[in-house]
Amino acid sequence: MPVYLLNESPLMPDPIHADAEGLVAIGGDLAHKRLINAYKSGIFPWYEEGSEILWWSPDPRLVLFPEELKVSKSMRSLFRKNYFNVTVNQQFVEVIANCKNIDRTDQGGTWITDEMEKAYISLHKLGYAHSVEVWHENKLVGGLYGIKLGNIYFGESMYSKVSNASKIGFIHLVKDLSEKGVKMIDCQIKTDHLISLGAREISRQHFLKILKRKFNST
17, 2 in Cβ contact below 8 A? Predict the structure, then answer.
């Protein structure tokens, strides 16, 4: 399959043309119009500092349908004890900075470049990107952020400085989004952490059909 070289146009190629690893295109920029078009098309940026921007649409795709959320007894106990306090959109800049800088030696380091950090902060100011903050004893100990477009949420990154903080934030997010009518949460790539919370893999074709019904994308 060809890998497309993007130009100044914010339009994105059809992700059905992704290569075997899910790479769809190279280059372009992270302007908000291109990013929104990318998410609506089932594509997201993921690359290292100093490289060209790489655009991906993996197959299969990890998603969570809110009604399939799994909350363990231990998590329910933490919620009842109010061990953590959770807020929304109160510290977006700090959350993305922590996601960027947290030690990820098991994942080969961060993929949140300086350029990406600035781009998602801009999306937050425009009302597209949202954060969840998890607090303990007035200290920010975990969080996550992503993009909400209509009734679909595209998760980007999460972090935790203490045990269970990111799980608490994610569970709170799913429940909040469900109340707001969100039908699907895109988790991008399989992790045991998200599988334990009810996420599952679906084919790229199925994922794109859901997006097409919502956004009438190609």
Answer: yes
Q: Report the alpha-carbon distance of residue 90 to residue 26 in Å, rounded.
A: 34
What is the torsion angle, in degrees rounded to the nearest 10, for the CA atoms of residue 69, residue 71, residue 76 and residue 77?
-160
The pTM of this model reads 0.94
Question: How far lies 186's CA from each of 30, 40, 82, 108, in Å?
Answer: 19, 11, 28, 22
Residue 163 identity: S
All domains of the chain, ordered by start, with CATH? 4-58 (3.30.70.3550), 62-202 (3.40.630.70)
Could you report the per-residue pLDDT of 166-187, keeping only the tens digit for each? 999 999 999 999 999 999 999 9
Residues forming beta bridges with residue 201, ordered by sequence position:
62
Cβ pair 32, 122 in contact under 8 A: yes
